[in-house]
Structure formats: structure tokens, C-alpha cells
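Researcher: Good morning. I'm working through a list of sequences from a screen, and I'd like to move beyond sequence-only analysis. For each chain I'm collecting a predicted structure so we can compare shapes side by side. This is the next one on the list. No need for commentary yet; just the structure.
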Amino acid sequence: MIGATATEMKNNFGKYLNIVMNGEEVIVTKNGREVGRFIPRDAAVSYLTDSLTGILKSGNEIEPEKTRRLKEKYAVAD
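Model: Good morning. C-alpha cells for this chain:
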């Protein structure tokens, strides 16, 4: 994992692109705070699927849960 300021990223994008293409992750900061991560595509897919693990149990349909969450979010009565 490598850190870079937003200015460094802007001025040296090709360098950081090569780093990511070689499988490394770059943490981007602005004013000392992390604002984003530049990660390889395969890691992004893995991160997304890992974050969903456990939300739906195997064998369940997504529609009932989706409907429930939308009703909850938008306070829709049955």
C-alpha cells in the first residue's frame, strides 16, 4: 500500500497507474485526510463481493429484501 497526495497523483498519474497495474493499492490524501483509494480492478471486484457477504443468505431471493428496504427507506405503507 502506497500513499500519495492528490497533487502528487495529479502530477504523476502515469507513475501511480503503473503501481496499480502491478497490483498495489494507492491511498490518496488531501490535506492529510484519506479521500480515496486507487486499486486494481480485480481488487475492486473482490472488495465489493466481500462487502456483500452475509447480507443475503444463500437460497434467498433478493426481491423480497429489496422491497422491504425500499419501503423502509421511503416510508411506504403496505
